[in-house]
Design a protein that fits this description.
single chain, alpha/beta, 8 helices, elongated
Length: 241
């Protein structure tokens, strides 16, 4: 083996493969920026490396994945707690977002969120919020992996005025990150109650054509389901079929 960049000697290693095992007396060899081997520590100590890192009390494991979040909203943490979802959104969060959300707000919130994620061992996250271009850029700067779901709604916000604008800006963002190693752009229709059926249908068609992922808020509360049945005769999930 050529000289390694870094060899890490932790107390335990939890590998992806083999599954359901915890390795002791093993070390991880990193060459050219990637893991090149997991080898017994006795053998690893004989290898040449730019650096040997001793972690005698630590466990080394793959990074955690946060499957859904709104990193910019970190700055709204604790705001209007303990309200039903629709009251929280309509009477508190949406008015606050209309007044305060900006590129600078999202940048600060995303930076704080990513610092907390990394501190807790999360290296990959999925995010759906306004100014997704800002969050994508900050994730890239932080070296994190991220699925950035650009928001789509049938109402104006600080980021876009209507569904057409959301889609146009989101597709441009996807094109910008088409060849990125760690950033993936997905469609993020907010929910059935904020996106009409023609827009949802168009999102489904575009996502299928582009082989892109979709994230949507669905069946979060009993009220949401009952409201959908009353208004459309269908549960939210049935509307998506």
């Amino acid at each position: 083996m050529d000289r390694a960049d870094l060899i890490i000697h932790p107390r335990y290693i939890v590998p992806i493969v083999p599954r359901d095992q915890v390795l002791t007396e093993h070390s991880i060899v990193i060459s050219n920026g990637v893991i090149s081997a997991i080898t017994p520590t006795a053998e690893a100590r004989l290898l040449s490396a730019d650096r040997h890192l001793e972690l005698p009390q630590q466990t080394l494991m793959p990074g955690l994945v946060n499957c859904h979040g709104h990193s910019g909203m970190t700055l709204l943490r604790g705001y209007a707690d303990d309200y039903p979802l629709m009251t929280w959104l309509q009477s508190h969060i949406w008015p606050a977002e209309s007044e305060f959300i900006s590129e600078a707000f999202v940048q600060d919130g995303a930076d704080l969120a990513m610092a907390e994620l990394l501190q807790g061992g999360t290296t990959t996250f999925s995010d759906m919020y306004f100014f997704p271009d800002v969050t994508a850029a900050r994730a890239e700067r932080a070296g994190m992996r991220a699925q950035i779901a650009f928001p789509i709604m049938d109402m104006p916000t600080a980021w876009a005025a209507d569904a057409e604008t959301y889609l146009a800006k989101g597709l441009a963002l996807r094109d910008h990150y088409r060849h990125a190693d760690r950033i993936e752009i997905a469609f993020g229709p907010h929910a059935n109650y904020t996106v009409n059926e023609p827009t949802l249908s168009r999102v489904a068609t575009l996502a299928h054509e582009l082989d892109a992922a979709i994230q949507i808020h669905l069946h979060e509360t009993k009220h949401e389901v009952l409201m959908s049945v009353e208004n459309t005769g269908e549960r939210p999930i049935d509307q998506l079929n």
